[in-house]
Amino acid sequence: MDERHLHIISFNIPYPPNFGGIIDVYYKIRALYNAGIKIHLHCFEYDRGPAPELESLCYELHYYQRKTGMGSAGSLKPYIVQSRNNEALIQHLLADDYPILFEGLHSCFFLNDPRLKKRFKIYRESNIEHQYYYNLFKAEKNPGPKIYYLIEAFKLRLYEKVLRYANLMLAVSDSDTAYLKKKFPDKKIIHLPSFHENDCIVGRPGRGDYVLYHGNLSVAENIRAGIFIAEKIAPFSQLPILFAGLNPDRKINEVVAKQPNITLVPNPTTPEMNTLITEAHAHLMVTFQATGLKLKLLNTIYQGRHILANKAMYNGTVIGKLVHHAETADEFIEILSGIADIPYTTNEMQFRKETLNGFYSNTHNAQKLIELIFD
Q1: Contact 282, 239 (CB under 8 A)
Q2: pLDDT digits (tens, 9 = 90+) for 205-243
Q3: At what angle do helices 129-139 and 143-159 cross, to 10 degrees?
Q4: CATH label of the domain that carries residue 245
Q5: Which of 57, 94, 212, 303 could anchor a disulfide with 33, C-beta 3.0 to 4.6 Å?
Q6: Domains contained in the chain, number
């Protein structure tokens, strides 16, 4: 069989795979590598440095600096796109005729470049970005960032039209697939679930002695959810609650300090976080943004025990079958009280396995992606 090569343009360096869409990028790379694909990875440096751990997975590995600052902010293109305009990247892409996978709208500066007209181009959606930024606008209280999010939401909605230059679009949820099909009825759009770190269900039957809320605690939507949990749910929980995650915002620190029932675990390592997830009795999964698939929810389904989530959290996926559904604070409190002494069982583990392992199998989805691109 001839070698099969694929360019992947990542909006950030996908290692360590410890937040959002970067999790999907890294484990997709690993699954494609294991399937024999030669990966030419292009990464934009943002808040992390080069990762030697990627070298063994990639045929080629390139890093590019983002063009941050007012020069990019003043562009008619969205800031997250304009700041990833790099001439070295297009030159590397033009060195061959391999297909190109654009990870997120962030990486799509060259999607409509006429020099790539004859190339097979794939867009990987992780969020409907203008909806995501508009929700950030609604959640933000500080006037400066609030205006920025609103302007970016407007720019992203206009720029979304560039996706018509993709030959194939891959969406992370049924609802996002439906949205893209409505916007681009003549394009090939497939629901391809997110890649993730789990190969099997590893949750432990039994009970834990705390409830966990985790995520990137510097992100506006997670800050808002954390404040909701701390103020509306934690005071009424029979079990102590742990908040764990990256770079806790000042608002998180302040609200936790007021609640004797909450302990903050800042910046745990990946193994530490996995231990916290596995040993918790229950998990609080709350979001006010029904965009994309929340990968921390998928990870917790594989590794954790009881999960309480609102509908926006599982957003058009089969995961809704596997959680205790709650919307209001009173509903979360009632369910938490009801399961406080109830162990997680092997029967529940088996149901998760039957529900997930076909649809969310990295090996299966890597093969599906290979067929879509190369066959």
Answers
A1: yes
A2: 999 999 999 999 998 889 999 999 999 999 999 999 999
A3: 160
A4: 3.40.50.2000
A5: 57
A6: 2
